[in-house]
Structures
1.
Amino acid sequence: MVTLTIDGREITVAEGTNLVEAAAAAGVEVPTYCYHPGLTVVGQCRICFVEVEGMPRLVTACSTPVQPEMVVLTASKRVREARAAVMEFLLENHPLDCPVCDQAGECGLQDYSVEHGLDSTHMVDERRTNPGRERHLIGPHVVQNQNRCIHCTRCIRFTTEISETADLTMKSRGNHSYIDTFDGRPFDNPWSACAADVCPVGALTVNEFRFRARVWHLEETRTICPGCSIGCNVSLGHLNGVVHRFVPRENAEVNGWWMCDYGRFLAEPLNDRTIDVPLERFGDGERRISWDSALAEVARWLREAPKPLVIASANMSNEALFAVRRNLVEGARMDVIVPVSEGETRRIKNGRGAWFSSNDAHPNSTGARHLGLAVADAANLESYLRDGTGPVLVLDAHAHPWLASEGAAAISADRQVAVLARYRTPLVDAASMVMPLASWAETDGTYTSSTGRVQLAHKALQPVGQARRAWEVVFHLALELGIEQERAVTPRILFAEMAAEVGAFSGMTWGRLMAEPGMPVHEEVVGVG
Amino acid sequence: MSDPILLRARGLKNSRSLSTYCRLGGYSALEKALSMTPAEVIEEVKASGIRGRGGAGFPAGVKWGFVPRDTAKPKYMICNADESEPGTFKDRELIVVDPHMVLEGIALASYAIGANTAYIYIRGEFVDEAQILGKAIAEARRKKYLGEDMLGSGYDLDVHIHRGAGAYICGEETALIESIEGKRGLPRLKPPFPAVVGLFGCPTVVNNVETLACVPHILERGGAWFAGIGTERSTGPKLFCVSGHVERPGVYEAPMGITFRKIIEDLCGGMRGGRKLKAFIPGGSSAPVLPADLIDTAADFESVAQAGSMLGSGGLIVMDETVDMVWALENLLAFYAHESCGQCTPCREGSDWAVDIVRRIHRGQGRQGDIETLHRIARFASQGMTICPLGDAFCGPISSFLEHFGHEFEEAISKASSMTAKALPILPVQSDRELFGL
Amino acid sequence: MTSPLVVASPDEVGDVTFDRSMDAQIRGILKRYPNQDAALLPVLWLCQDRWGWISPGIMAAVGKRLDLAPAFVEGVATFYTMYQRRPPGKYLLQVCTTLSCQLCDTSVLVDHLKQKLDIDFGETSADGLFTLVDVQCLGACGEAPVIQINSDYHTDLTVEKLDALLERLAGQ
C-alpha cells in the first residue's frame, strides 16, 4: 500500500494505482476522456494533467502511478490553465451540435467544459469536417458523426481489447484522422453498441436510441438483462411508461462495463403489448372477463382435475418460482415443470478480462433448479403435455420457443388451457383462458445467474392495463384454491421467506441485494443443476 | 580543421566501395574495438563528448551507458536514417558518399551496448540510399566486418534495413520503434525510455546517422582527439546543410563553433544574387528563427541556445530580404500540421489551428486577436503538454517568428480587408427517417 | 532514366493471393525480425512494388498472412503517405513544397505542372501518364527544387529541365 497526499488530503491506496483512481479515492474527480478503467492507458487526450511537487512538468494522472510521499495538486493554477487550454483545443473543431446530439446530458465535453473550460473560444476559423461521415450508419446499431470525435481511441481499444474483434481503426493521420472499419464494411460484432457507450461524446451513438428522448428526462432503473443466464447488470431508461433504452451497468464480477447487442435490444419489445385484459374463449372468438372470474374458473378446473399440469418459466423471478413451489407444488400437489431452452451462445467479458458464455436463453434456470423445480427441455415439454389429458396452466406463454409453435397450440384443442401472456402466439389464440402477464420490468425480482450470483432487478414500470405479476397471480390463485396464506406478499417478503427456507439463498437479505452488486449463492448448493 | 573527416571520401572515385573505405583506414576502429571491452568502448565515446546529431544533442556515450548490462533480453541498436526535418540533408550525403563509415559506426555502437541485431530505419523516399546501404552491408559481410564471428572475435551482428513510408514523426525515437514493430508511428509515453524498454520491449539505443559516423574516428584516434575539435561542450566536426538563398547550397563539414557568418559567406559563397540576409533557421525547421543581426552566433549547442534557438540537426535555412515571413511561417506550419501523428489533443488540434490562422493572415484576412491566439497555441502545445516534442517543434517557429518578425504579422492584419460576412452553406438535409429507417 | 510504374488495375487486386515467389520473399522478410508483426511495413512495400498500389484486397491478404486484423493493416497503410491507396499513373510526380524548395521558387514549377498537365495535386493526367502529388521535405534541400518521380530524385530543376524530363518520360 502507498500513502500520498492529494489536494492536502492523505490517502492510502494499492501500489500501482494511477493518480486518477487515487484522486477518486480521495474524493476528487480528475477529468478524463481517453482513460477508461476497463481499457489500456494511452495518455493521449491530455485533459487529466495534475501537478506533482518536485516534477517540473505537469503529468497525466492516468499514466502516473502513485509513489510514496507524493504530493499531488489537482486544481493548482497551472493545472487549471492547462486543462482549460486542452478543453479549448478539444472544442476548437467540435461542432455545436448539442441541440441535435443524443449525447447531450451525459457528454464528457459538456460536463468538463462547464467545470474546467473557458466560457468562450478564440477560434474564429472554419472547423474541419468529415463529409460523408457526419450521419453515417457505421454498423446496424451505431451511428457515426466523425465531426464530433475527440480522437480518444476508446472505441478502437474496445474492439481490440474487449470484443477482440479488432474491427475499428484510426485511418489517416493528424487532424484528418478518422475512425472507420476495414474497407468501410459494416461495424457488426455482438457488442458493437458498447463502442457507442464508451464514446465520451456523440461521435458514436446508438442507432436505436437516436432522437428518442433526452437523457435527463429518462428515469434510469437498475435491473438485470433477461436475455440469457449470464445476468448482465443493466440500466433501463424509460419515460412515461415507454422503454427507451438499456445501457450496461458496471459489475466487475459479471459483465464489466459491457452488454451484448442482443440483450440491449430486448428493450424495444417491452413496449409491445397486445394482451392487457383477461379474456376467455367464447365460441369462435373471445370475450373479456374479470380477473376474479378468470381466477375462480381456473381454480375450479384445477381442483376438479386429477392431474393438472402447470408450466412455470425460467424467465420468472426467484420470488415467483418460490410462490409456485410453496403454493402449487407443496400446497396443491400439482405437477410443475420449468421449460428451459438452449439458445444462441451469448458471451460477455467481465471487469477482470474473463469471458462468460451461456447457451441458456433464460435469466433464471439456475434459480429454478435451486428451488428444486423440475426442469424440462423441448422434447420433455412436448411429451409432458401430450401425455396428459387434464387442464394445463401456463404461467408464461413465452416460457419456451416451442410453446409459441402450432404444435403447442394444437394441444389446447380439446383441453382446458389457461395462459398468462403479454402478446399473442398461436397458443394464446387457442387457449381457453388468457390472462395478461406483467413483464419482468414491471416487478421487483431476483434472478440467479449461471455464474452463481443472485441479483436484484428493480421494477421500472407500472404494469400495463390489467396485467398482473406472476407471483401475484399465484398468490391469488392459491387463495381461490383454498390454500391458506399467512400474510399478503410482496417480492421482498417472499424473498425473506425463501432465504429462510431454501439453502441456496441462506444468509441473503433483500437489503443487502439492494446495496451490493449481487450475492453469490450459498456454497453447498453451487453444484445443483 | 583542415582535412575533412566525415566527408573525407567525397569526390573520390568509387568513394562508396569497401576497398576505398579500407584504404582510408576504415574498419581499423572496429578491429581495435573488438579487442576492447564494450565498457571501454563506451568510455572512449563518453570522453569524446559527442552529442547526438539528430537534433536533440544528447551525449551519445551517456545514452549508451543507460542500457542495462544485467538483463537476459536481447538488445537492439537502431540507426535513425529517417532524415525528414526540413532543411536537413546531411545523413543522405553520408550514406551516398561513405556508407561503410555509417556501418562501422553501427557496428561499434552495437558492440558497445551488447546488441547482436541492428536496424537501419531509413525514410521511404531514400530508395537509392537504401540500396546503397544494402550493397555495403553485403560487402561488409563478405569480409566479416559484419555477420557471424566478426573478424574472428566471436561477436555476431546482423544489420537489417527497415524502410519507412512517409512520416516525419517516425524520426522521433519511440515512434520509430513503433514503426519497426509494424504499427502507426505514434510516439510512446516516456518513461519508460528506450534504453530500458524499447524495440520489442527490449533495451534499445537509437542514434542518428551522423552521430554513428563519428564513432569510428573516435575509436581510431581517441575520444580526447575528438573532444579537441569544436568547443568545450559541443565537440567534434559537424556537417552543416545549407539551403535557401545562398550561392552554393550543400553539405559542408566544419568544426562545431564555426560562426553562421563564416558558413554563409566563406563556405557557401555568400547570399544568392548578392542580396541581404534577413533571417536564418540554424538547425532544421523546428529550430526557432533568428534575425540577420545574430549571424555572428557560433554554431554550437550552447551558443545557439543562448541566442534563443537550437543547433538541432545543423540544417541551416537562409532567407533573404525578399522573403515574406508570414508566408514562410505558413509553409512551416503546414508541414507540421501534415506530419502530426494525431494522438494528442494540443498538437493535433493546435497545429491545424495555427496554420489556418497564419494562412488567413497571409491571404489578407487577419483579425485582431490572431497574434494573441497564436501565442496561446504556442504556449499550450509545448513544454510537456504533448506526448512528444513535435508540439515544441511547431511552437518554436510560432514564438520566434512573432518575436523577431511580429511587425510583418501586425502589418498584414492591419491591412486586412474587412471580414465579409460569409454566407453559411446550405446543406441538403435528408430526413433521418429515410436514412435510418425510423 | 526513371522507369514507369507497373500498376495493377482494381480488378487484378480485388481478391489477392500471394504466389510462391511473393511468399518466399515474405518469408525472407520475416527472418529479419523476432516478431511477425514487424514485417508489416516491408510486406506492404513488397506489395506496392509488385502491384503499384495497396488495394483493400491486398490489405486483407497481408492481414491474413501476418495474422493481423485487416482494419489494423488499413490503419497502418493509411498513416504513411507513401503507400498509394489508389492506382497511380505511370509516373508519380512527388513535388516537394516545403520551405527550402519554396525559397528556390518551386511554386513556379508547381504552377507550370498544374497548367501543363491540366491537373491539381492528387490527380492523374488524362493520358494516365502523370500523377501529381505534393509532398513534404525530401531531404535534398541543397539541390532544390526537388521532385521525386517514382523512386528517383530529380534535383536542381527549372521549368526547362522539367519539360525536357517529362517529354523523355512520356516517350518511354
2.
Amino acid sequence: MTQIFLSSIFLIINGYGDPIEIKVGFGAAPVIDGIIDDATGEWEQANKQNINLYPDITIPENGLEIDLWVIQEGVNLCILVQFDLQDHDSSEYDNEFIGILIADEDSNSDFTDVKIVQYSNISENTFQYLDYHINDTEYEVDIISNGAGAANLEENQITYEFSIPVKETEDQFQDVYLNYIRNYDFKIVFGKTAFYPDGIMISNIVSIYLEFKPGSPDIPIDELIMIISTIVIFSTIGALYIFYIYRITQLKKEIKRIRS
Amino acid sequence: MSKINKNSVKSQPTKKKEKLEEKFAYRSVIISAIFGGLFLIISILLNGEIITLFPSDNPFLLALDITIRVLVILIFDILIIVSLGNYKELTGKPVDFKIIGLLFFLSLIQAFKDSLVFSFTLVGLLVIVLYLYLVQES
C-alpha cells in the first residue's frame, strides 16, 4: 500500500466522482490470457486510458495509476487493466484481485454485476475468473458464469484481461444486460484479500459507451422505426394544418360565393 | 304617414349585427388557428422528444413534464375545434363528427411516444368530446 500512497504524488486527476467517459470502437479479438501479444497487434485498436484508482473516488488522492484499455470485438466488450507494484510477486499480493462492477444503464451507478479475476497465489500465477452479482450488498456467485478473465504477472507488471458479453448473456437476471449505443458505468476495483466488498481497497468509475456492430445500421431497427414514425406523424399533422391555413385564406372568397 | 319602410328600419341593425358576428367569427377562426399552430409547434418539440423540459429522474419533474405535454395537446385540440367551428359556421355548414373524429385522432397520435402522455391525453380528449356533445344536445 506504501506504493499506492507514493504514486499519489504523480496522480492524474480524472474527476471528483464523475465517471471517466470512454467511447469504445471495434477491433480484433484479443486472446484473454493476461498477455499482450505485440506480434499479432493485440489490443492495438483499443481505446487506451490512463486512470487512477482511489480509496475514495470523491477524494482523488492516494491513487494507483493504471492503464485501462477497452475494445469491442464481435459480441464482447474486452477490458484490460495493467499496473506496476513493487515486490509484486511477494506473498503480500497472493490474493490480489481486480474486479469490474457493472451498473445497469440509467441506474446512477447502482452496481449489480461483478466480474473478478482473483489470485490465489500470485507467484505461481494461480487465479480464477469469478462471475458474481450483488444482492443488496452481498456478493453472490452467479448460477451461470458469463464472460472470461485472465491475468499474468511479469516482473512487477501485472495484466488483467476481461471479456464481457454484449447482448449475448445467458443470464439476464444476475448479469447486467449490456446493449449497444448505450452508456454503462463500470467500477474498476482492486484489493489484496479475497473478500468482497470488504477487500476492495481502491476503485474508480468509468462510463463506457458501447458502439453498434460494424456493418449494422448506426441506429437499431426499433429506434429507426420510432424516428420514421415521428417524422411521418408530425409531418402529416403539419401538412394538414398548413392546408387548413390555406383554406382560411380562401374563406372570404368562399363566403362571398355562398352569399351571391 | 311615414314614408320610411318599417321592414327596412328593422333589418338594418340586424344586418349590422350579423356583419359584426361574421367579423368576430372570422377573427376567431384566424386567431384560434394561429394559437393552435403555436401549440402544435410546442407539441412537436415536446412530444416529438426534440427537446426535454426536465432531464431528471425526479418524480415531481416527471409528473410536471407529462402534465405540460398533455395540456399542450389538449389546448391545441380545443383551439382547432374553436377555429374549425367558426369556419364551418361562416360557410354555413355544421361541424360533423367526421371532423371531430379526425381532430381527435390527430391530437391523440401526437402522444404516441409516451404511454402515460397517451393515456392522459385520451382521457382529456374524451372529456372534451363529451362536453361538446352535451353542449350541442342542450
